[in-house]
Amino acid sequence: MDKKTFTIGILSLTAVILFVANLIVPPRAQADMAIKDRDYQAVTAHIQANDEGLYVLDNRSGLMALFSYDPNRKTLALRGPITPIMNAFVGAAGGR
After folding, report:
1. DSSP 8-state secondary structure symbol assigned to residue 80
2. What count of other Cβ atoms lies within 10 Å of the Cβ of residue 55?
3. What is the pLDDT of residues 7-25, one digit of tens each?
4. Cα–Cα nearest to 34, from 24, 47, 45, 18
């Protein structure tokens, strides 16, 4: 086996490995995911154009908080006050 054949073989093997690795990549986080546990729920959603938020719901106390990424401080920031979950349904059809 000469050097040229060995190089082509190594490059071909590398291409196959990269192709398979590209197929196995886990899905990216999207703004339509929900995670539910016994005490808490975490839901991502679009807030406005090019902005996504993380709603954290406390099932025991009935409170909800909204967090979003603040690019200026490069951290998650609380948007607005922590409110009862039922406030989100005030004025809904069939509501009181």
Report:
1. S
2. 17
3. 999 999 999 999 998 888 7
4. 45
Question: Rounded distance, CA 23 to CA 44, Å?
Answer: 25
Residue in the structure block whose two tokens are 């590398």: 14
In a domain, 14, yes or no: no
Assess if residue 83 is contained within a domain: yes
Please state the three-class secondary structure of 32-43 as a single string: CCEEECCCEEEE
Q: Using the structure block, give the residue that is written with the tokens 């039922």.
A: 86
What does the alpha-carbon distance between residue 83 and residue 96 come to, in Å, rounded to a whole number?
19
Backbone angles phi, psi at 27, to 5 degrees: -65, 150
| pTM of the entire predicted model | 0.56
The answer to whether residue 20 is domain-embedded is: no
* CA 2 from centre of chain: 50
